[in-house]
Amino acid sequence: MDGETPLRLLVAWHPNASGNEALEFAAWLSRTTPTIVRTATIVVRPWLALSKLTSKYEKQLAKEAHRACQQAKKALTAAGVPEDSWDDPVNVLVDGSSQAALLNDIATDFDASIILFGSQGAARKGSFRANSTVDALLHSSPYALGLTPRAPKLAKHGVKRLTVAFTSLEFDSDTLDTALGLAGRLDVPVRVLAILREDVDTPTSLQSELHHSSREDALAFLDSLHDSIADKHPEQTVEAELAYGPSVADAMETPRWKKGDLLLLGSTPVGTLERVFVGSTAGEILRNIKTPAIVIPAGKPE
């Protein structure tokens, strides 16, 4: 996310989608910093050999690609993405059996900074629900993913604060560097947020001491992180906050979330299956996000 070049936003989009949150996310970022926006539409087809596809199918696919491009322009305009941010082509339509693999390929061709997704249609207002494609990309994609809850409330003039969330006392320094670089690009203050889930299954006789100790450790971690950022980036405005509760959902209710907040999370650089958030504390954070979020994969060079 080099601050000298526009953010390249690839929006996973389909004309028949129930919501346009991903396009609204792109428009919101475009109101904050220069962007180049391309939409990607995937047509899922069965496991057929290319040789079995007829010329009639190919002609119809070309017609659908043209139609999708025209619909994408209307949707981008409706969402408020300025025309000078549109890529050429503004939409690509491809077919295949794996949406995740195709999106990764398109992102590579486009040199995407972030792949943007809206929430699955069944999600309640103000929450995020990942579909199977997002789940697969969280496991495997080398690209940052932008995820936005259903019907988010977004500040009219763009991003106003970047919240960087930590779920343990260990974190990927690359993620913090990426966050500070993004905050500098957007010219916004940073809030470092430690999210602490306090286990209610702990025996009652131990809860008080354990909860007190864990909060003290988290606060010490935040103090150290705050001081480190202030030393290395004296120009950056930084605040620190601890959020805790018996569940991640409860902890996420503790901080005050504003319309201008953008959340950033990083993957933990461990094993492939553990690197992502399914079933983890960070996975619960994603399911309870109040604002748009960017997930940075571990080890991605920026």
UniProtKB/TrEMBL annotation:
Recorded superkingdom: Bacteria
Gene3D superfamilies associated with the record: HUPs
UspA domain sequence ranges: 8-142, 160-297
A Pfam family of this chain: Usp
Record InterPro entries: Rossmann-like_a/b/a_fold (IPR014729), UspA (IPR006016)
Name of the protein: UspA domain-containing protein
Organism: Corynebacterium pyruviciproducens ATCC BAA-1742
